[in-house]
Amino acid sequence: MDLQPSAQSEADNGNTASPRVGVFICHCGGNISDVVDVGQVSQESSRLPGVVCSMTHMFFCSDPGQNLIEQKIREEKLTRVIVAACSPSLHEMTFRRCVARAGLNQYLFEHCNIREQVSWVISDKKQATRKAGRLIRAAASRAVHLKPLQRRRIPIHPSALIIGGGVAGLTTARDLAQSGIQVTLIESSPFLGGRLASLHRIYPTGMKARDVLGPLIEEVAGNPNVTIYTNAQLENASGFIGDFRTTIRVTPRGVTSECLNPQEVIDACPEESLDPFNLGLSKRKAIYKPYDGCYPPVPAIDWRTCTKCGVCFEVAGGKGIDLEEQPKLVEVRSGVIVLAVGLNTYPVRHAEYGFGEFPEVVTLHQMNRLLDPQGPTGGLLMVNGRQVRSVGFMHCVGSLQRKGIHKPMRDGKINEYCSRVCCTTTVHTAAELKERFPEMQIYDFHEDIRTYGRKHEDYYDAVSQKGVVFIRFDPLRPPRVQRDPKGKAPLVVTTFDRLTFGEELEVPLDLLVLAQGFVARDMSKLVDLYRCSVGSDRFLMEVHPKLRPVEMAASGLFLSGSVQGPMDISESTAAAAAAAAKAASMIRTGVIDLDPFVARVEENLCSGCKVCLTVCPFQAISRDEARGIAVVNEALCMGCGTCAASCPSNAIFQDGFEDAQVKAEVLALLEEPSLVAAAD
Amino acid sequence: MTHTETAPQGAVEAPTWEPRIVGFLCYWCSYTGADGAGSARIKYTPNVDIVKVMCSGRIDPELVTMAFSRGADGVLVLGCHPGDCHYINGNHKTMVRMPLLRRILEDFGIEPQRFRHDWVSAAEGEKFSRLVTEMTEQIRALGPLDWPKRMRDLGVGHGAGLGPWGEDHR
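ok -> structure tokens follow
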């Protein structure tokens, strides 16, 4: 391999015998030239090997600046272009396009960052000028080794697979289907609606959750572009952006629409278990519907509870009940995949604030079920047959956890983040209680409270005025929950109150509601199948929180809703709509345009040792057994270059980051004499 | 900023010696972090020259040894925090390679302070500038490395001007 950073390098691709390099140094309106002596740097650059033209301009990103570059490329017959200016994240694409307009391959352009990494971080003018010169020398040296590259274009199958049938998945499905794209929606439970179905009233509108959900499901289920699979689990996945193949396992629901008397069948079922829909507050039959108006309207069988006794079969007269149907595998083809699996509520520990010890301690989600007129108590607020007269809300259960105070979860992590939604939900619930039960005593125990969001502060103001008592505890001395020794009320909460300067308060309560936070679901299968990036908080990670908030690093995967972190319904649907828009625009273009920095195997050098197969994060490399060499799937390769660094035979090259290119850059940086002139 | 007054004892004959450090930075986290230091106008020593790679997984140990053999006084390798890799787990490979490389470099007489591997996220411009300044000062205290000369004195490998397979690096 050639290591010499000279213009006569053999590593040049041969399109020109000796590259003609143009160096364009930007003043950036003084941002650079106030610190870097651009004139001097330009002069030095003009003497670099291969450089035939070196000039400065006030703003090369401006139209006149870009025109000048184009003009020089034509006049001087430049074959390599270097712009020394701001960070490549700002204008690399601008200049690539500019170079392409002048008829040069855009990857024969090299961007050199002398603003963010020179003029803005070094105050000494001589040092800054010297560093700028060094970086330009390195860029020129690297540029000589650049090769023309073509962006990859891959056709895309005009369809989307949406994983998760909650409010986010449904919203994305609706938007995509309405724009004419074929959508397959899969849901792991037998019914659509997710967490939203089991909520009661939701802020900021105060609407019944099911009044929001019902029409949405109707729009999705009624659209001919949508195929829905409930009771569907991910089994396997292959393929890549444009052509994913996902195998799902569909568990039979045991009941079909041919069953004419579903309610009688449900009533006749002798088996019961705790109802997860009501969060264990009631029981349900082994053949069940979570609530009236659910979708699909047909009941389903809970196979873990069902003993296959056959009573349902007899009651239904043998119609529409099948207890022996086997699961079936379905292959779904899709151009893109939208992940909308949502999140879980924090599993409150036994005895955490008395949870599990005392029946008078419930979670906020359970409270939602208790307030629902269609809920397990018919909307009556009774605990142990006793009317509830005083309620306490405990904030941040499972959120804002601290090392040393909170026990870690099973994976050894604690939830240091804020779950965001619980404050407003708590205050919103308190407001409903005050409205329905004006005499009720309500206490709010928080370490910190913020009902963020448009108009949400109004809830806080409203309940404050209605007499909800806010008590601010010290997180280092969390409140304790006990049976009331005096027997006045079932529970007593003992806490320090920071708002009254550390006074110890004893608050008797009929009911304590824990505002549990949220945690990511166990998504190991999903992460494994689609090679997702996971954040340190276990939620899935977007490419960039601001610039590409609903896309994943692996191309063709989109994030919809709270799979990305705790979100309320409004935020979830906004993210879901964004994911739909992004996915639709990708599908509509018909082809995908990808960076060309893929790995390439030099067949003559490859020994077929498979080291590259083991390091590739995207399983983009396979071994051609017939030829005994590694083969890169360009559609799967994301261009990290990890394989290139691992190959013991130096047989893998990463386009745009070949050894020759990177080494030439390093050598040029180190060319400068070690002993520099005094900074006088 | 001049460092004339703080010149270390090892470099008395050349008070203006400046450490030369090559920094290999992944594009998505660390390079963006370094840009962040710029946007925030955080000043740091000019001694680290950044070489951009798409992922720290691309950093072949050979690139590091080559930098030392061609006169670098230090090499800085920065990638995304574990779990935050743009390429899922490219940085996990770096995490395995670099400690091994460090041990080898130590065997070849390169002080541990001269080779640093750390994590800098896109938001950690302040951490980046601190790392750079810290490393520059540590290497300034150590004095020039001149690995080729050290090896030449021992009569081996890169120091003799030869690569591990005998290729001529001179």
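Residues 253 and 300 of chain A are 5 Å apart (CA to CA).
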